[in-house]
Input
Amino acid sequence: MKKLIKENLKYIIIFALLMGWILLSSLTSHDFFWGYSFSFNTANGQIPYKDFNMIATPFSTLILAFFLFIFGKSIHTYAIIYSLLITGFTILLDKLYKEKGWLMLFLLWSPFCIQPVFIATSPYNILVIFLSLILIYLEKKQKSPLIIGLVLALIFFTKQNIGILLIIAEIIFSYKNKKDRMQKAIGFLGITSIFLFYFILTKSLYPFINQTFLGLFDFAKENTTYHGIFFYLSLLLIIIDIILFIKNKTIENAILLANTFLAISVYDGTHFLLTLATSTLLITNTKKISLKKINFPILLLSIESILIGVIIFQNFSKEHIYPTKIKYLNYFYHPKSVIIENKKLKEYIEEKNYKNIVIFDSNSYYYKITNEWKVNKYLDLMNEGNYGKNGSIEAINEIKQVKEEAVYFFNLKLVEEFKKQKNSQLDIKTLKWFLKNAKKIDEIGKFSIYKYQVKKEKDHSK
Output
């Protein structure tokens, strides 16, 4: 038993560090918390794409929602499952690539905006890399083509653009082997038929297609910036990787190359580090670079232990409320100011007996989850490119077509923050349209309270 613990101690520490980062570093407005929110909605019976908007294909949301439904909907369940996922990711990288894998992990733990990339990015980005590593393992060990097809489909239904690239790669590398190609196709179509059945059963097939495929053009138009340091660095890495792949054409390198496109089309620090990590693995793998002199596990675990220690000291040395005694988030640290703001908001809404609540704030899902308020399809996540082919028109029409009289809580600082952030995805057009067509009725804390003024206007859907 002692030997087993000693051999796996680094993985146990990785798991513990992940739990610490997730539960003690206050991430109510980051991509990780949005990922939890989507799975929370699904575990509560909401239908992705139909009841709330998402731009990625649904596997990560559905599988994590399954665990929330079985083991409880608190963020602690989500944190445990996500930490186990990344620990499994770590073990697989270690077994496949040794020091080169640990270098990739070191980059994925890089503290961008304090939190590691693992935490700052959406869970589906980490899951798609993990599934890609499983695909590499299956290809290197020449496992059943049927299983490879199954994993390929799961990648496609985790992140569609990486899935499409890998489908092309598998077709090319299986071109001469008809039997393998057919078995992979059977595996892929088997998983695809299950997802199609789910979409048809839940009447969400068109919303799925609209938001994850037809809406990609609007997403690219509204969010892609072909300038800035992260764009040029990402472009440089991808060009280098393509050249290396051309010189070393293997299915393994094709899978790694596909994952370097994780930065497209949001060129910010977090997405760049995802591209840098996968690109570094491809470069060190193809150039046969030796990294044995650097003890990356010790370096990584030491730095991360110090960082999480600093975060915990900063959070708990100032006035705080912990445990928070907030439903679903009891041992999830977040600032006292956010907790007090939430309490004031809840008391105000209960006093006024408001039933249909819309919150324009970066913490909108935090308020919705902790108070179990009704979810809106588009208005809880006001990101440009997340609405489907019609873009912001969908959000505007939802405001117009709300069945019950809605009350809008608008944090006007969102507009100020949008002006300061170069890569903000905030749908500022819809928010400005709303302010022109709404009447302010009150204020509470940081929120100005509005009601939409119904008036005859030109139909935006045409």
Notes: The mean pLDDT is 89. The chain is about 65% helix and 5% strand.
